[in-house]
Amino acid sequence: MDLALPVGCASCGHPGARVCGPCRTALWGWCYPGGPRAVLPDPCPPGLPPVVATAVNDGVVRRVLHAYKDEGRRDLRDTLLELLVPALALAAGAVRPAPREGVVVVPVPTSPAARRRRGDRPLEQLVAAAAEAVPGAAYRSVLSVGGRAADQALLGQEARAVNLQGVMRVAAGGGEAMSGRPVLLVDDLLTTGATLLEAARALRAEGVVVAGAVVVAATRRNPPRDALGIVRRVR
Ligand SMILES: [Zn+2]
Fold first, then answer.
1. Ligand 1 midpoint to CA 15 (Å)
2. How close is the Cα of 22 to the center of ligand 1, in Å?
3. Where's the Phosphoribosyltransferase domain (predicted)?
4. How far is the CA of 25 from the centre of ligand 1 (A)?
5. 3-class secondary-structure state, position 192
6. What is the CATH number of the domain that holds 188?
7. What is the mean pLDDT of the segment spanning 209-226?
8. How far apart are CA 163 and CA 158, in angstroms?
9. Is residue 208 part of a domain?
C-alpha cells in the first residue's frame, strides 16, 4: 500500500503515519477543551439551527480536513471520525423531546462543481461512517445542490450566502424518508452558517424538523458558547 498511496503525515509530510505523533498532539490542541460544544456564527443568520463543533478550524485540523477532501487523502477518514463522532453523539443525545426512533443524519450536499473536482463524495462518506457509529442514528443523503451553485470553496464569505440561496433540494420522497423523525445536518465546517442555513431551509420546506447541526470544526469567528448561551473567547 505504501507504493500505491501517498504516505506521510497529512499535516507536516513526515513519512510514515497518516498523522504523525506530534501533529496528533497538535490536532487535539485545536479541539475545544472538555469536548464538542455549541458554537455560534457571528453574525448568526436567523433560522440557523443550533450547531455543535469539536474543534477550531485551524492548524492541523484545517490541514487534515483539506487533505481529506481536496488532496485525495481518503485514508484520513478515521482520524476525522475521531473528531466528528463525539460531536454527533452529543447533538443526537441533546435532541428534545428525545425521539424514540432516533435521529436522522443528513449530510450537507456537495455542489456538482466540487464533486467534479474531487471525483467522489468524501464528506458524504465521512458522515455515513459517523452516523453508523452513533446508536439510533440513521443516515439519509436526501439533499442535492442545483447546477447553478458555484464551488463554495472558491468564494468569499459574502458571496457564499448569495450563491447558496434556494439552490438545495430534497430528493423526491426524501421528506417522507424521515418518518417524522428529527434531523441533524452534518457538514465539515462552520464558517458563516450560510450552507447549513440553506440545507435547513430545504428540509423545512418539506416539513422536516431540523433539530440541529454538527460540524467537525468552526472558524474562529464562531466562538463556542457555554450552557447559558454566553459567548466565550477561546484562543
Ligand atoms: Zn506531522
1. 8
2. 6
3. 178-221
4. 9
5. coil
6. 3.40.50
7. 85
8. 9
9. yes
Q: How far apart are CA 109 and CA 209, in angstroms?
A: 18
Q: Given a cut of 50, is residue 209 above it in pLDDT?
A: yes
Q: What residues pack around ion ligand 1 (CB closer than 5 A)?
A: 9, 11-12, 14, 20, 23
Query: Looking at the domain assignment, is residue 90 inside a domain?
Result: yes
Instruction: Report the domain count for the chain.
Output: 1
> Which residue range is the domain that position 168 belongs to?
35-218
Residue 234 has pLDDT above 60, yes or no: no
Give the separation between CA 208 and CA 173, rounded to whole angstroms: 12
Set of cell numbers at residue 114: 466540487
CA of 29 to the centre of ligand 1 (A): 14
pLDDT at residue 149 is higher than 70 = no
Assigned C-alpha cell, 105: 443524519
Q: Quick one: pLDDT band at residue 103, thresholds 50, 70, 90? A: very high
How many angstroms does the Cα of residue 21 sit away from the middle of ligand 1?
7
From the list 233, 226, 167, the residue with the least C-alpha distance to 201 is 167
Rounded mean pLDDT, 144-173: 75
